């Protein structure tokens, strides 16, 4: 005899949210990059793109010395670019910067094969920023690096053609204008959810069900479905 504990599982529709935790500056160690997957993104943008600024969540850092690409580049990058940008159209400028709370670097390979690099935007900002004036149509390969080797630096890569959006004034929280949910409505929603019969819960049965090893299990199964009347073939009859 084998004892099998039966579980009753009630499933509900839910929302799965993924939280990214950023290490705070002030002594916390940045996790090594070697075990973390790098987000590789291919982006097709045309001048005048509506989602301006374009904000991408990516990981910076790697084991490749960026100075091997160009002596003017600093930091350590991944072997592959984190973003490949296929750009078309005409714009006065495109600014690319990385928004984080660490010390990242930025490397961009231009369509002509040359490189543009930056470490710190200025003396007050450790985040890098690169602006291309009248950017030509073509492919741009973008790497986000770390100042030290084999570090993982999460953050936001921002691409914009708006002069009022820059690394010093960007407020990500202010980009979406949404009124907060009233506290009384939130409490009522939580109360309704708690009382809902579809709330996700796993409960074991009070008693285990004993099933013999060779004992067959029989059950009655009924299946029904709707069939259109005109789909039924009846001799000498017309169904509609």
Instruction: Give the N-to-C terminal Cα separation.
Output: 56 Å
Structural class designation: mainly beta
The CATH class of the domain at 41-174 turns out to be Mainly Beta
- The total count of helices amounts to 1
CATH architecture of the domain at 41-174: Sandwich
Number of strands: 15
Spatial order of the strands forming the largest sheet: 3-7-12-9-10
CATH topology of the domain at 41-174: Jelly Rolls
| Overall mean confidence score, pLDDT | 77
Radius of gyration: 29 Å
Contiguous low-pLDDT stretches (5 residues minimum) are 1-31
Q: Spell out the helices and strands N to C.
A: EEEEEEEEEEEEEHEE
Task: Describe the structure concisely.
The chain is built from one helix and 15 strands; from the N terminus they run βββββββββββββαββ. It is mostly beta strands.
Would you give an account of this structure?
The chain has 240 residues and is mostly beta strands. It has a domain at 41-174: Sandwich (Jelly Rolls), CATH 2.60.120. The chain contains one helix and 15 strands; from the N terminus they run βββββββββββββαββ. It has one helix at 183-195; strands spanning 2-4, 7-10, 41-46, 54-60, 64-65, 76-77, 83-88, 93-99, 104-109, 115-118, 129-133, 138-146, 153-160, 201-204, 209-211. The strands form five sheets. It has a five-stranded mixed sheet, with no helix packed on it. A hairpin with a 5-residue loop joins strand 9 (104-109) and strand 10. The longest helix has 13 residues, at 183-195. The protein is elongated, with a radius of gyration of 29 Å. The protein starts with a strand and ends in a 29-residue tail after the last strand. 21% of the residues are buried. Mean pLDDT is 77; it is low at 1-31.
